[in-house]
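Open question from group meeting: does this chain pack into something compact, or does most of it stay loose? Before anyone orders reagents, we agreed to write out a predicted structure and look at it together. Recording both the input and the output here so the notebook holds the full record.
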Amino acid sequence: MDILGGQAVQAERLVRHLRQEPSLQVGFLPINPRLPGILRRLQSIKYIRTLTTSLLYWVNLLREVRKYDVIHIFSASYLSFLIAPTPAILTAKLYRKKIVLNYHSGEAEDHLKRWRRSTVPVLKRVDAVIVPSEYLVRVFREFGIVASAIFNIVELDKFSYRERPDVRPRFLSNRNLEPHYGVDCVLRAFAIIQKQVPEAVLTIVGDGSQRSALEDLKRQLNLRQTSFLGRVQHDKVYELYSTSDIFLNASKIDNQPLSILEAFACGLPVVTTDAGGIPDIVTDGESGLVVAVGDCDALAQRSIELLNDHHLAMILAQRAFLECERYTWQVVCHEWLDLYHNLGAKAPSRNV
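Structure tokens returned:
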């Protein structure tokens, strides 16, 4: 998986678990296949990389889709929707296969508004639209598309739950460095925190188009003990959750952040904005602390509230951990299996 983000993590987990199911035969086709041998050099050249990778992806679709009964297509939004899911949908329709579109982007509402003519007709050609949150179910309903929610998978056995009776000012942000994830607000909130708690530490995991601008903002705010770690392999992120004490999230647009669920699994109390589907997984005062989008001051003050009230932090973390049970494979597997078998009921194999 070369693509950074929660969707790639979910694809890897779903494929791995489904391959253990005796009633299914599962294949995987990446949207960014690597060219063989010396041709791989073409994928290091801008624009040529996009063209050659797309051509190989389309050839692979024509070759592989015909072998399966149900085609499960992961989808993001905007141009990505046209480049990857749309060719897969059209190829599946060509071969008369059943299609599951698994849409993950928190930008769905804006995507469907701005790209309505090109996107909605394509979405209506699939057999099932699956989203990871009730929030996206509501968004799709506004555009006349019936969607069902099957939650993201959190692998609790990969995380070590740790109670934090004495909450230290060690903060963690784990989001891609893109505008809609609001990491700039995290930095501004941390500037307020650090004025009151000089020993506070912030670790920022992730990479993206805003990294240089965010590093400049760090300098402008004169932040100390603030580290940008860049992209960190997922198995290494577990250690960062474990050694941190408060998780900060300032999304402006979002769906069901995997990073928040992972913080829950580690016993890490969460302070977050109320973007998109976040209120569906974080209840203010019960499983975390929630502030309005863009309110950096409130993000800071509620974080300081946790530093001053260790009992509250521990209770929130305990309740949040119980929420994780809804996102385990043992719970969601039955929903996926029922969906696949219902769609492929008339096929003799059960290939996905």
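Observations to bring back to the group:
The mean pLDDT is 92.
Residues 48-64 form the longest helix (17 residues).
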